[in-house]
Amino acid sequence: MSTSELPDGLDPVRAFQALGPDDILGPLESLGFVPDGRFYPLSSYENRVYRVGIEDGAPVVAKFYRPARWSDEAILEEHAFTLELAERAIPVVPPLVREGRTLHHSGPFRFAVFPSRGGRAPELDQPGVRRRLGRLVARLHVEGERRPFRHRPAIDIESYGYASRRYLLEEGFIPAELAATYEGVTAHLLENVAACFERAGAVRTLRLHGDFHAANVLADGDELFIVDFDDVRSGPAVQDLWMLLAGSREEQVPQLAEVLAGYEEFRRFDARELHLVEALRSLRIMHYAAWIARRWADPAFKTAFPWFNTARYWDEHILALREQAALTQEPPLPWRG
């Protein structure tokens, strides 16, 4: 069933925004769970995610998918990827299989149920953490290159860059007095991004986590678990590595060496992809602004991002894009593989 063919003429977007306790607990009961009445929201803006207490059992996490973002096929491909990783003993948290399925429907809602996994984000500056994360990403990528996605899109200049630019301009989010400046800055930046991809050449693409940063890893004692595969896409391997780098160029050089030392224990890294680090960072900045704009009608986003769509925000956004335009012209970070 697709979200455009819902029973009783329900509007899936309005229903999603008004998701209530019965909408959360009722679907779990239909799958045989016995909620104890306790539930609380977990940090998630794109979807609605809740930790739910279960009578005589461990709590579970119920994830309700935002309507019209992914097709059922794309969500199932995400689930299949995490189950595949788990079968290879890669520490992820795949959805539970209930009644032979991982994706379930309840009225206007699509949802999945996951085991509840405790932990906290690892501290990147602690000794050895980046190397461990490099190993983890490499193991994910070894599995990711076994076959392509069929229903998940790629991270590319069009979808992350040009489409984001068009949306913000056409929907009137860019203030009139800044529109010409924004158009000029983004045109220059996207030309530079394209040049970065040209310098990198024909790098291999594979199935990725797509949003791999410290907040999407849980440290539980000595164990690390990768979570939140909602943004899985195809792209170059470095997409899952560059967000582990922070600070000035000088600070990033040893960080990169540590990440790739761990990575190359399991998979060879193509050094040409280092041409893409600032290009991918630029595309993420543009995509992030457009993502919030596309969700601006959702009251939850106005609460979570009160600073968005103010004159100050757009001034700072354009400044960040200018800085990225300069960074995309610099040589790639040095690394001796």
Question: Which properties best describe this structure?
Answer:
337 residues, alpha+beta, Phosphorylase Kinase, domain 1, Transferase(Phosphotransferase), domain 1, 5-stranded antiparallel β-sheet, two-stranded antiparallel ribbon, 10 helices, 42% helix, 14% strand, globular
Protein described:
- With 337 residues, the protein is α+β, with helices and mostly antiparallel strands.
- The chain has two domains: 7-115, Phosphorylase Kinase, domain 1 (2-Layer Sandwich), CATH 3.30.200; 129-327, Transferase(Phosphotransferase) domain 1 (Transferase(Phosphotransferase), domain 1, Orthogonal Bundle).
- It has ten helices and nine strands.
- It has helices spanning 12-17, 21-30, 72-87, 129-144, 157-170, 176-200, 249-263, 277-294, 299-304, 311-327, and strands at 35-41, 48-54, 57-64, 104-106, 109-115, 205-207, 217-220, 223-226, 234-236.
- The strands form three sheets. It has a five-stranded antiparallel beta sheet with strand order 1-2-3-5-4.
- Helix 8 runs antiparallel to helix 10.
- The longest helix has 25 residues, at 176-200.
- The relative contact order is 0.12.
- Residues 1-7 have low confidence and may be disordered.
**Can you tell me the residue ranges where pLDDT is under 50 for at least 5 consecutive residues?**
1-7
The fraction of residues in strands falls at 5-15%
Average pLDDT over all residues = 93
Structural class: alpha+beta
What assembly state would you assign to the polypeptide chains in this entry?
A: single chain
- Main sheet record: 5 strands, antiparallel
Using the coordinates shown, work out and report the CATH topology of the largest domain: Transferase(Phosphotransferase), domain 1
CATH class of the largest domain: Mainly Alpha
Envelope shape: globular
Strand order of the largest sheet: 1-2-3-5-4
* CATH H-tier superfamily of the largest domain: Transferase(Phosphotransferase) domain 1
Tally of separate domains: 2
> How many beta-strand runs?
9
The CATH architecture of the largest domain is Orthogonal Bundle
